[in-house]
Amino acid sequence: MKASPADQQELLRLQSLDTRLQQLAHRLGALPQTAPLAELAKRHTAVRGTRAEAVGALEGARAELTRLESDVAIVEARIARDGDRLQHTSSVKDVTALESELASLARRRSDLEDQELVVMQRVEDAELRVADIDEERATIESEVEKLQAERDEAAAGLTKEREAAERDRDVVAGGVPAELLAFYEQRRARGAGIGAALLRQRTCQGCNMTLTGSDLDTVRRAAADDVLLCPDCDRILVRTEESGI
Ligand SMILES: [Zn+2]
């Protein structure tokens, strides 16, 4: 294939824009916030599970407290009723029985009140635990918000850079003859994103191999408008005054 040295050198500009576009695509696909956000999402899920357990414990303690309060109310009603009956009876036998029952009810009430204190402490502890978890959850959520905002901003910046590079590429590609451009695209598809490389100091910048012997002779003998391929990596080899041949 033939192409003017100037057109061939345009391929190097095109290549540098394509390399830049590839790097931008890579950066967009691997934004630094992605991994910490995934980690935070995991922590958020774990905290939700812990909170459900803590709320379960709190509800259990509250239910137990309600039951104890109701037991105390029943005992107190019974104490009031027995006290009333005690005042209105003249039977010594009844008095003895009522007094004994009242003593037993008083013990029962005291016992229930002791249990109430223990359960009240459990309710309080469980409330604190839920509050701690809520605080942790809020911290995670605000961290997520901050990272998402950073990520979106970084993505927007990179997208803008990509759009600018795409416009530049369109301009450069528009100036390259169609046949040469198609050849470059074909080499680029096969050359892991690199279709054209500069020959600098007899070394291909695509594969870093130095031309020697008959390969070097071939390049030296080639006409300036011959489109050459690197004998090692098969990419378009572009000669400039830096080529050292
Ligand atoms: Zn090469």
How would you portray this structure in words?
The relative contact order is 0.15. The protein has helices at residues 5-29, 34-87, 92-174, 178-190, 213-221; strands spanning 196-200, 203-204, 228-229, 236-239. The model has no long low-confidence stretch (mean pLDDT 97). A four-stranded mixed sheet has the order 2-1-4-3. Helix 1 packs antiparallel against helix 3 (92-174) and helix 2 (34-87) packs antiparallel against helix 3. It has two domains: 5-26 and 177-239, no CATH class; 31-160, Helix Hairpins. The chain is mainly alpha-helical and 245 residues long. The protein is rod-shaped, with a radius of gyration of 42 Å. Bound molecules: zinc ion. Zinc ion is lined by residues 197, 204, 206-207, 209, 230, 232-233, 235.
Count of DSSP-assigned helices = 5
Number-wise, the strands total 4
- At CATH level 3, the topology of the largest domain is Helix Hairpins
Strand content is: 5-15%
Described by strand count, sense and barrel closure, the largest sheet is:
4 strands, mixed
Low-pLDDT parts are none
User: Largest beta sheet: what is the strand line-up?
Assistant: 2-1-4-3
Q: Percentage of helical residues?
A: over 70%
Q: What is the CATH architecture annotation of the largest domain?
A: Orthogonal Bundle
Number of domains: 2
Q: Would you list the SSEs in sequence order as H and E?
A: HHHHEEHEE
Shape: rod-shaped
Helix/strand structural class: mainly alpha
Q: What is the gyration radius calculated from CA atoms?
A: 42 Å
Name of the top-level CATH class of the largest domain: Mainly Alpha
pLDDT averaged residue by residue: 97
